[in-house]
């Protein structure tokens, strides 16, 4: 095999890559993707493009921070991303078994 180092990295990282499978199956798609972060980055990018050119780095930072504060204080920031009852059930089962 010509790519021995690449094959070794993949082989070494398989367990870490599949860590999400240790959680309840209902959480798998939420854990293995980062759609929330991507959505937030798209929103910030969209707003900074509207402004176009910032006078300095602080004004860009203030815009991004204002958007992050807005997200944290609104329904979008408070939306439950995963149903934690599945994890609570797993913890309860582990406590009973252990």
Characterization of this structure:
The protein is mainly α and 98 residues long. The protein has one domain. Helices cover 71% and strands 0% of the residues. It is built from six helices and no strands. It has helices at 4-17, 28-32, 35-51, 57-73, 75-78, 85-97. Helix 3 (35-51) crosses helix 4 (57-73). The longest helix is centred in the middle third of the chain and has 17 residues, at 35-51. It is flat, with a radius of gyration of 20 Å. The relative contact order is 0.10.
Characteristics of this structure?
98 residues, mainly alpha, 71% helix, 6 helices
Helix content: over 70%
General form: flat
Poorly predicted sequence stretches spanning 5 or more consecutive residues: none
How many discrete structural domains? 1
Mean pLDDT: 80
Give the terminus-to-terminus CA distance.
Answer: 45 Å
How would you briefly describe this protein structure?
This protein has 98 residues and is mainly α.
Produce the secondary structure layout.
Blueprint: H1 4-17, H2 28-32, H3 35-51, H4 57-73, H5 75-78, H6 85-97
């Amino acid at each position: 095999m010509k790519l021995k180092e690449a094959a070794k990295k993949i082989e070494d990282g398989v367990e870490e890559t599949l860590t999400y499978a240790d959680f309840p199956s209902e959480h798998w798609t939420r854990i293995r993707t980062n759609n929330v972060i991507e959505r937030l980055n798209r929103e910030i990018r969209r707003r900074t493009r509207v402004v176009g050119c910032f006078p300095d780095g602080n004004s860009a930072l203030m815009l991004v921070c204002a958007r992050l504060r807005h997200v944290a204080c609104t329904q979008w920031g408070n939306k439950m991303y995963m149903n934690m009852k599945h994890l609570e059930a797993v913890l309860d089962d582990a406590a009973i078994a252990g």
